[in-house]
Design a protein that fits this description.
Elements (H helix, E strand, L loop, with lengths): L1 H6 L1 H14 L11 E5 L2 H13 L8 E4 L12 E6 L6 H11 L4 E6 L2 H10 L2 E4 L11 H14 L6 H15 L1 H15 L3 E7 L3 H14 L5 E5 L17 E7 L5 H14 L6 E5 L5 H23 L7 H11 L2
């Protein structure tokens, strides 16, 4: 079933744009000087993408939190977004309760649950997305697109993202067969190894997304790091043979030139310790297009790895167990 959900990513983005176009977000009664987004897992990673997409345009800080508590800077001059696909995420609900006490402008993005109930009860702005998807992590498109529209409606970014999203949709539709074929080739090489994902600092969300998808779909451990930061620490750890590890570089042809030089040198060093080093280049003209392309490519990698492992890519029994145990305390 996960392969069907991944196949529907382009259609989900299209639907998400229609929902965003129809959304009504009212201005705050006070000036907004910063943004804080509360969300975890598949509902939280969308905020990390938006943070990267708007960094060069948005004039105010866009902060992302993935825990129970909100920072002290959240106040009446803050746009506070709660992103939870189910609307019942424990940590996000606790953050929401704290936001209520600050006077912040609260916007809810969810398919239902307690958050939508609260939004309706308190007359808060909210965007409700379809609730019939069996896996929150398959709903990344809804999360990304709605947050972009919220920022646009409140005047912090232009509508440039609209055209870039449409181009991204066309790209992954047009390249669908090639993406799946190439992703399968990567999965065939790395399914029995520990994946290590590297990318540059402007695209960390893509690396996090691939890591999370490998964790949940293929039921495997892996890790990621970013360049140039990893050149100041992790690179020193490559001192012995690790043929059980596969290094994946998620790349853009227009990455900062000094980072491209760093990647070349990194690979010269790492190639002494593992034979499996793979470059995956994005396609597209904007960061949104490039990121959407790599997300879709990575999702398919994780799916094909799950097939190799004989794993049920949908089930998250250990997370369900954790939530069950937490509910007893």
């Amino acid at each position: 079933m996960m392969d069907e959900l991944i196949s529907r990513f382009a259609d989900q983005l299209t639907e998400a744009m229609q929902i965003g176009e129809a959304a009504k977000i009212t201005p705050h009664h006070l000036p907004v000087h910063k943004v804080y987004v509360a969300g975890l897992g598949g509902s939280g990673i969308g905020a990390n993408f938006v943070q990267e997409f708007i960094r060069e345009e948005c004039p105010i800080p866009y902060n992302v939190g993935k825990g129970y508590t909100i920072p002290k800077f959240v106040d009446e001059n803050t746009l506070a977004i709660c992103s939870s696909y189910s609307g019942n995420t424990e940590e996000t609900l606790e953050s929401y309760e704290q936001m209520l006490k600050t006077g912040a402008k609260i916007v809810i993005i969810s398919s239902g649950g307690k958050l939508i109930e609260e939004a309706k009860k308190r007359n808060l702005d909210y965007i409700q997305v379809p609730g019939d998807w069996p896996s929150p992590r398959a709903c990344l498109g809804y999360s990304i697109v709605q947050q972009l529209y919220v920022m646009y409606r409140l005047g912090f970014i232009s509508d440039k993202f609209v055209g870039e999203l449409k181009s991204a949709i066309d790209l992954i539709k047009y390249d669908k067969e090639d993406i799946q074929s190439s992703a399968k080739q990567v999965a065939d090489r790395i399914y029995n190894k520990i994946p290590i994902i590297y990318t540059t600092d402007r695209s960390e969300a893509v690396a996090v997304r691939l890591r999370q998808q490998i964790n949940e779909n293929a039921k495997m451990l892996c890790w990621h790091h970013v360049i140039p930061e990893m050149n100041h620490n992790e690179l020193v750890g490559w001192t012995e043979k690790h043929e059980d590890m596969a290094v994946i570089y998620l790349r853009n042809s227009d990455d900062y030139k000094r980072n491209q030089v760093r990647i070349k040198i990194n690979q010269e060093i790492i190639s002494k310790y593992t034979d499996t080093i793979i470059d995956i280049y994005s396609k597209g003209n904007s960061l949104i297009e490039k990121s959407i392309y790599l997300v879709n490519f990575g999702d398919w990698i994780s799916w094909y790895m799950s097939v190799h492992k004989g794993a049920d890519s949908i089930e998250v029994n250990v997370i369900d167990y954790l939530k069950s145990e937490l509910s007893k305390v």
